[in-house]
Task: structure prediction
Amino acid sequence: MVGIELVSIYKPKSLSDALEFLDKNAPDVKPIAGGTELLLLIRDKKIKPPKYLLDLYPLKKQLSYVKVENGIVRIGALTTVYELSQSILHRDKRFAGFVDVYDKFGTMALRFEATIGGNLNAATQYSDYITLMLVFDASVRLESVKGVRELKLSEFVLDKRKTALNPNELVTEVVFREPPLDSSSSFVKFDRREILIAGIVTEATYLHLEGDTIKDVRISFDMVAGRRIPARALKTEEFLRGKSFTSDLLEEAAEKVLPSEMSRVTDWWTTADYRLEMSKVSLKRGLKLAYERVKGVR
Amino acid sequence: MVKVTLTVNNVKYELDVPPLERLIDTLRYRLGFTSVKEGCGRGECGSCIVLVNGNPVHSCLALTSRLDGAEITTLEGLAPAGKMHAIQVAYIEARGVQCGFCTPSFIMVTKALLDRVSDPDDKTIREWHSSVLCRCGSYPYYFEAVKRAAKYLKEGKVYFDEREVREKYHLKVLAR
Result:
């Protein structure tokens, strides 16, 4: 790699050591976790090579975990996608959306490298874990030498490749409330092949049922209103909430309500019309999948 | 420069590397393990996959300076001298190889898979094979190879005599 010989790498002894180094040298430092995103950005000259890389591998033991305690789910930022697949999240039907994301995430080898914190921090419409975590209403925990703050994920991701993370902060944890028993989730990624692809439409659903009545529902898409980052389809959620789950209802939500809040773009991959049409289909599929999971059909 | 100690194929190396040297460059150009191939160089084709502490890792996305103390296995280290690993034999017998560029990676991925699951089902094999692209299209043959390798390992046949295998399948016999 040309032009990046001047970078030096720092290996912290502990989390507080890492935070101090960040604070002293920001904004010339880039923390590096799995490296599947940052090294490519440097290689493609999309960002200037930083003066220092902060190696996060030494913090791996401390920041790699999945815990469900006191009704709160906590995921350490350095947990790799493969480690997620070995955790409780892949054995409980309420978190079935995690299995869906995993099944279409990169390739097997990439799943050993990519971390959950890195995926959220990348902040693109292709970061499937952002789309998924939005429906769990997750928050990220940001730490710096000055203290800890927690931000809603929707406030954390500002724009494509832009987050609310200050240069002296580190994402250490993702937190969300444990969903109730009669709930489930799903994730739909639509494209021409199964894996190693961004997805021309991705959609995530969280559904909480009481009998056949939709008690709570959260839906997110890779993009909703113009901005190229994942966001919730709030109007569609509002429309569905409190109603009885029928195929007529899904049809109305997809055909009438969703298009009113969604604007899609045409690009190299496909047209806006096709994207919108597939978004409607994904919405219906995602809701149906989650419904079947709550009912135990799947 | 960063000082790192690497164990590659059970041999310890003490190296002084630039901070951003990629593992693939260390393995190929410093240490001469040329079974590691560079394809896309961006973690998509998987031709550069090696095992780092038993996990399959794209060596084009790994920095050597971050891997102090790691244990790395490439295809060269799969079997001791004069022997062939059951997975290698299975890949020869399945006859998938056309150009052979991706084969080392497929074998390493298979090793990682069979270390975790001794009797993988079809979906699992396809899932793990997704790591590597093969443009000759040898996937169905490689798929059979994994099943064959799993069978060998189950029967306790881990290493085969290299000379015997080479003579049996008319492969070039190395003078040893």
About this structure: Residues 32 and 50 of chain B are 14 Å apart (CA to CA). The radius of gyration of chain B is 16 Å. The first strand of chain B starts at residue 2 and ends at 8.
